[in-house]
Amino acid sequence: MAFSRKNCFGIFCIFIVVFIWVGSSELMNYLFTSQGYDKPYFLAYFDTGLFSVYLFGFLFHPKWKRQCSKNCPKETMKEISSCICCRNIKKKEILIKKDETESEIESISTNESENEKFIENENENENENENENENENQNQNQNENQKLIESNESSDDLQKLISLERKELEKPEKIKVPIAEIVKISTTIAPFWFFANYTFNLSLSLTDVSSNTIISATSSFFTLIFGVIIKVDQFSFAKIFSVLLCFGGVICVSLSDRKNSSGNSSFIGDLISLLSAAIYGIYTIMIKKKLDDKNISGPIFFGFLGLSSFVLLWPFLLLLDLTKLEKFEFPTSMNLVYVVLNALVGSVISDYFWLLAVLFTSPLAATLGLSLTLPVAMVADIFIKSRKFSLIYIFGSLMVIFAFVLINLNEKFSFIDHKIVSCCQKKKQKLNQNENQNENQNQNENQNENSTLIN
Predict the structure, then answer these.
(1) Using H for helix, E for strand and C for coil, what is the string for the chain?
(2) Domains of the chain, residue spans
(3) Region 389-416: what's the mean pLDDT?
(4) What is the pLDDT of residues 52-86, one digit of tens each?
(5) Where are the transmembrane segments (predicted)?
């Protein structure tokens, strides 16, 4: 299968996102362990707040400026457009009726004139001009047929235009969502997005990058579970098997971390990473519920998400400082460079490339590309930290990768669901038939017993 330039560029964007995410995780782990700047809440607050950089697009992007201007409400815009379309349709229907009536009148008048001429010619020269009259009638009939065909073609074209306009009327119109509604949606989703990143950063300070990456990859399965509960998605046998396989891999990775670590910190970090994946699953479902069938720009949404997080979540910095759970300290000049670099590249730029990857390939290919972070993180830990992995760890990571492949190729295995459902239905039918046969046998036996008693 030949790849187009768009597909190749989309795959290139996926690889960029994978390496950025793994590099960002390694940089965060370096800040927490080597530099001693263990501030997961502040880093999550700074990274999320920096999304508001997207809002500078309102200064340069003309479409964003127009969206801020006062336009007609949605209902009035829809009513005006539908009224104009309906008026055009009625005009075209009237034209079709006029064409049909005119063609009928012309055919009637031509028939009458033909009959009169034919009668006069018959009275004058009955025997001499029979052949000539027949030729004239044939020519006139041909002319009439051509006129009728042309009128029918014009009416058919108008009817096609009417049907197309009616189909466009039935289509849902994509109207730009007002800024106030975008702010409301981003404000409701911002806490889930923020705490998913906060728990992710917190787990990085307690466990390795490879373990964090593998366990965080289970977010798609939490998305599936919450999607079924909210009736956004449906279960299938392939999905259930992939969920069980993924959690089996997570258990293998967690057990390996617990054996190799001196204390329980790595195991607790794995649990916090699992919590981060669950919160991210909730965030993804909220995105589907809130942004479904709405024409909202991604940068605008992320810009207001960053702004709302920056405005609403700063009191928790004071609370953590007062309780001494995370003492507020401004980073040093070198650490500040790392923090800004991680926020710009690991959050703002990576999300932009992720959006390009989805647009130029497909959501399926982009989601499947997430599994590439698992071997890349393992290789990074091998070369950076000289870490050695046990067989249980490698087996668990392979289970997670295979689960990702299986759940993303769920449509390919849909025939398995149909076969299992058909087998279950056949078994139910057989059981019902056996029950009916047993009931009939019991009835016959009872009738025989009653007859013997009567005799």
Answers:
(1) CCCCHHHHHHHHHHHHHHHHHHHHHHHHHHHHHCCCCCCHHHHHHHHHHHHHHHHHHHHHCHHHHHHHCCCCCHHHHHHHHHHHHHHHHHHHHHHHHHHHHHHHHHHHHHHHHHHHHHHHHHHHCCCCCHHHHHHHHHHHHHHHHHHHHHHHHHHHHHHHHHHHHHHHHHCCCCCECCHHHHHHHHHHHHHHHHHHHHHHHHHHCCCCHHHHHHHHCCHHHHHHHHHHHCCCCCCCHHHHHHHHHHHHHHHHHHHHHHHHCCCCHHHHHHHHHHHHHHHHHHHHHHHHHHHCCCECCHHHHHHHHHHHHHHHCCHHHHHHHHCCCCCCCCCCHHHHHHHHHHHHHHHHHHHHHHHHHHHHCCHHHHHHHHHHHHHHHHHHHHHHCCCCCCHHHHHHHHHHHHHHHHHHCHHHHHHHHHHHHHHHHHHHHHHHHHHHHHHHHHHHHHHHHHHHHHC
(2) 5-71+179-408, 74-170
(3) 72
(4) 888 888 777 777 666 665 444 444 444 434 444 45
(5) 7-22, 42-60, 175-194, 214-230, 237-256, 268-287, 299-317, 337-357, 364-384, 390-409
